[in-house]
Design a protein that fits this description.
This protein is of the alpha+beta class and 233 residues long. The chain has ten helices and six strands; from the N terminus they run H-E-H-E-H-H-H-H-E-E-H-H-E-H-E-H.
């Protein structure tokens, strides 16, 4: 970004106003090796994107991951690191998991999953927002519904309107709240998915929200006003 943002200050505002259990997570989709800050370490063991998000959120981890370090093929595809596998493209993968009545239903869902074009991303970068050494493309927040309510109100504060979220119960952290905000330039809310809840520490009571980093100053300012409003609970 051209603007220099006070990430530590913004993170403190979000954590305080929302009562977050962990940090907002800064994510960058680097197009090449030059997009990785000097001295930043690569993830040592393969993991899923949702697990990587939780490492930054709960463990204060700062690292990057190339395609080889992405354990989930669906997540790597959604983030632009890999081609879509044949089993996902055909619908076989989610059909065998019992997610849909038919292969056709699986294919319709996969065809509608937001994803970064394959090959566009060289590596994904992760850090707690308050200590990020890079300018993020997307910031992901994991929180309980009341906090998500305040985030939704903060998104609507400047102009009003409605929240229109896109989700399908699969690929929540990779497609719904990372790829979609990156592609669309709009925040998106998601209920999480079985994979993120099983493998990454997303709790039963948690929801997920991703926003383009360009909106951070506006939302940080709005959230102070929304949570301090007379009608706020």
């Amino acid at each position: 970004m051209r603007s220099t943002l006070p990430y530590a200050e913004i993170s403190d505002t979000l954590k305080t106003c929302l009562g977050l259990d962990g940090s907002p997570v800064a994510i960058k989709l680097a197009k090449n090796a030059q997009g990785i800050p000097e001295g930043m370490e690569e993830l040592k063991e393969p993991a899923r994107h949702c697990r990587m998000v939780n490492m930054a959120r709960r463990e204060d981890a700062i690292f990057y991951a190339t395609a080889e370090k992405h354990q989930c093929m669906g997540g790597a595809w959604a983030l632009g690191l890999r081609e879509l596998t044949d089993s996902l493209r055909s619908g076989e993968f989610y059909y065998k998991l019992g997610k849909f009545e038919s292969w056709a239903g699986c294919m319709r869902t996969i065809d509608s999953v937001p994803h970064v074009p394959t090959g566009r991303t060289y590596a994904t970068l992760y850090a707690p927002l308050e200590t990020t050494p890079f300018d993020p493309h997307v910031v992901v927040i994991v929180a309980q519904p009341r906090s998500m309510l305040k985030l939704a109100q903060s998104v609507l504060y400047p102009l009003g309107g409605r929240i229109n979220s896109s989700m399908s119960g699969i690929q929540s952290l990779c497609a719904d709240t990372t790829a979609l905000p990156y592609i669309s330039g709009r925040p998106n809310f998601s209920l999480g998915c079985d994979g993120s809840r099983k493998f990454s520490g997303i709790e039963d009571a948690d929801m997920v929200m991703g926003m383009p980093a360009e909106l951070l100053p506006e939302i940080a300012e709005s959230i102070k006003l929304v949570t301090g409003a007379p009608g706020s609970v």
